[in-house]
Amino acid sequence: MSETVHYAIGDVHGEAEKLARLHDCIREDAARLGVAPHFVHLGDLVDRGPDSRAVIESVMQLDGEGVCLRGNHEAMMLNAYSGESGLAEHSWATNGGMQTVESYNRANGETDHWRAAVDRNHIHWLRGLPSMWRDGRLVFVHAGIDPYRFPDCVEEVRLWTRSRIFLNSEAWPQREALEDVLVVHGHTPTDDFEPERQRRRVNVDTGACFGGPLTCAVLAPDEKPRFLHAR
After folding, report:
1. What is the fold, at CATH topology level, of the domain defined by 6-230?
2. Bridge partner residues of 133 (DSSP)
3. pTM beyond 0.90
4. pLDDT band, residue 83 (cuts 50/70/90)
5. Which of 86, 102, 134, 159 has the most CB within a 10 Å radius?
């Protein structure tokens, strides 16, 4: 098999040990197929879980082996780091940001202000992440799309949407832009900790930070999606 096999990884949320196990599973699966794995991290690397800093380090080291998308939690972290609004900092802190700060403090030492503990190259890297990436019919995005405007969705939709029209892909409008598209996303944890597969979208957020596994979708040419998990 010579064509690209994508491994799309759902919301990590600081679960560094699960991510390490899933990366190992992916490399074993790719070796069995005789391909080089193409990692697609769907965003929300940070917050809530125990070691967001280690997660970012791990994904940054995959440079050249794939792509990482920006999630809404990366957006909140960057807004808080910019310091332009105290409300932004409070919002991030109360949505798992404190756990992220703790992971940087453990690694780099506590400072007078949390920003000084965060590796600057991490911030630079996070600022450069795209909000959507596409390979042919496969569309990778953190939260989802606006079926009425795709591919010209605003970033807020790509990072935050949980709209009923998006989540029910059979109700999407008949548009040429959506013909044969498969949207692969995270952001909305599944109730049963299992990935959700519809004809036109796949959700791989299986609640890794809430006790569920960390999941990736294996997307090989001319094959149905299948899934790998790390618990």
Report:
1. Purple Acid Phosphatase; chain A, domain 2 (3.60.21)
2. 140
3. yes
4. confident
5. 159
